Amino acid sequence: MRGILRTTLLSAAVMSICGTALAEDWQLAKDEDGVKVYLSAVPGSKYKAYRGVVDIKADVATINALQEDVKGSCKWIHACADMRLLKTEGGDTWTYSKISMPWPVTGRDVVIHVTTEKTPDGGMIRHLNGEPTFTPEVSGEIRVPKLVGEWKLVPKGAGVTEVTYQVQTEPGGSIPSWLANSFVVDAPMNTLKGLRSAAEKR
To answer: Residues of the signal sequence (predicted)?
Structure first.
């Protein structure tokens, strides 16, 4: 589970900002098909943090199982090119992901350390932190130097779970402004739509 969660975060991470605590002024950027995406400026960064929120007609266990399927999760995570589990230790997981970028932008990769916290209401929070030096850099990829985020699953009753996906990152290298601006909206929007579709088919 940590694998997929970590990976989902990876893809999202690829274009946001650095430090969830720094993103506070959330503004609604897009509301489409039941998914709301909010953006926030982050002091000291030129990239915005993003937060996506959606209600999914599936219980926490179902969504958790999808997130634990590391390889399978790449199918519904935005811009995911590859994803694999590196290490599991107790409740902690480390994953490696490659993020696709449109030509001629160089692709990114990211190593994410995921810790899972169960909440009293039966939900869970997966905390995501980038660890760029956990594995050697890969030729042809730009390693994401900084990423902070979380997945939050809150049971709402009647088999419905509210899912929040939030990420702030520094993508490393240079990213065209048009791509950065579209990624911070598309990443949470498409990832949550994909997760919802997979979960509600089960």
So the answer is: 1-23
In this predicted model, what pLDDT tens digit does every residue of 46-62 receive, in sequence order? 999 999 999 999 999 99
- Which residues, 6+ apart, have CB-to-CB distance to 49 below 8 Å? 16, 17, 20, 22, 23, 39, 40, 41, 42, 166, 167, 168, 184
Sign, Cα dihedral of 61, 67, 124, 88: positive
Q: What is the domain range of residue 15?
A: 2-200
Burial label, 18 (beta-carbon count in 10 A; 0-12, 13-18, 19+): buried
Four-residue CA torsion sign, 14, 66, 116, 51 = positive
Q: What is the CATH classification number for the domain harbouring 113? A: 3.30.530.20
- Pull the structure tokens for residue 155: 């049971």
CA–CA gap between residue 201 and residue 196 (Å, rounded): 9
Q: Kindly indicate the confidence band of residue 92, based on its pLDDT and cuts at 50, 70 and 90.
A: very high
Helix (H, G, I), strand (E, B) or coil at 41: coil
Whole-angstrom CA distances from 62 to 55, 97, 142, 160 are: 14, 23, 34, 11
Q: Is the pLDDT of residue 14 over 50?
A: no
The structural domain count of the chain equals 1
Q: Cα–Cα distance between 163 and 39 in angstroms, integer?
A: 16
Q: State whether the Cα torsion 165-167-173-174 is positive or negative.
A: positive
Q: pLDDT tens digits for 115-124?
A: 999 999 999 9
